[in-house]
Amino acid sequence: MLLLYSVLQLIYVILLAPLITGILIKTEERLESKKGPSVFQPYYDIFKLLKKESLVPRVASPIFRIGPYLNFSLYMLLIIILPIITGFPLTFGPTADFIGGGLIFGAASLIKKITALDSRNNYSHLGTARAASVGALADPLVVLIFILCGIISNTNNPYVINNIFQTSHSWFFSIVHLFIASAFGMIVIIETGKLPIESKTQAEFGMIDQAMELEYSGPELAIYKWGGYIKHFLLMSVFLNVFAFPFFLPMEGANFTHVIVYSFIHLGKMIILTIIFAFIEESVSKYRLYKIFDFMAVAFVITLLGVIAIYTTKGIF
């Protein structure tokens, strides 16, 4: 049965990840009083790219072509590890804890940076440098947040952490949880590109991920985009299921019906969070690119307050 749930979760995330991106784009366009593309536009883009020819720079090595598939496979591994539609470990759940999952996310990001450098494109190098600068500050912060979660639960298992926050109101409503949930939410905003900077255009001043994918075309570009959608879906799911609103996630002993029902509840939670992100991105003035480090500094201070709180109040206030 656990294997069936693993397959179900894999299909669920792979199929719905582009939809969440489509809803985000549609919401942003509507907030700008525009009609906007269909919420299914990411699917159309993926299918269109899968039919196109792949063009590879002459100077690129074989790593350039296989990178997108390695990147995508790591995200598929994360899908069957993290708590998405169940609150109990599935077949491959014991493969990695929170720290291990963070390392897999980091490995997928590293592969993308290496392939961008391998393209020998100046703009791709620019995007890689920016992504590395952001990651150098965001990744240690994520590790610190996971360590705090480990102190609370005596483990870094995301399923156990979810069960503790879901069943223990004293921890869920504690000031420690408030700090770490706020800090992780800010990291999710950064990692998913929802911080309002000029990062979605082909303009040199703000592009990051777009620059790294600049030399890709055809199926490889489709796989990279699809992997990006899955990454955003996974980070938002972890934020919702572990930190922000861990309730209703089926726990040990739940039957198949509970899992199916929660999959619809989870989709509703994702849509609500997507709309909130769209409001944040559209209601705040665009930042200069360097302001992202100020934003992370605030996230670091909030995490540090969580560290202080857990050792001064024992997390009970």
Would you mind describing this structure in some detail?
The protein is mainly alpha-helical and 317 residues long. Helix content is 70%, strand content 0%. The chain has one domain. It is built from twelve helices and no strands. It is globular, with a radius of gyration of 19 Å. The protein starts with a helix and ends in a 5-residue tail after the last helix.
Gross geometry: globular
- Straight-line distance between termini: 40 Å
Q: Rg to the nearest angstrom?
A: 19 Å
How many DSSP H or I helices?
Answer: 12
Portion of residues within helices: over 70%
Structural class assignment: mainly alpha
* Largest sheet report: none
Mean pLDDT: 85
Question: How many domains comprise the coordinates?
Answer: 1
* Order of SSEs: HHHHHHHHHHHH
User: What is the number of E strands?
Assistant: 0
Segments where pLDDT lies below 50 for 5+ residues?
none
> Approximately how much beta-strand content do the residues carry?
under 5%
Q: Can you describe this structure in just a few lines?
A:
The chain is an all-alpha fold and 317 residues long. The protein has helices at residues 2-31, 41-50, 62-79, 98-118, 122-153, 158-167, 169-172, 175-191, 209-212, 218-244, 256-283, 291-312. The chain has one domain (2-312).
Features of this protein?
317 residues, 70% helix
Chart the SSEs and their pairings.
Elements: H1 2-31, H2 41-50, H3 62-79, H4 98-118, H5 122-153, H6 158-167, H7 169-172, H8 175-191, H9 209-212, H10 218-244, H11 256-283, H12 291-312
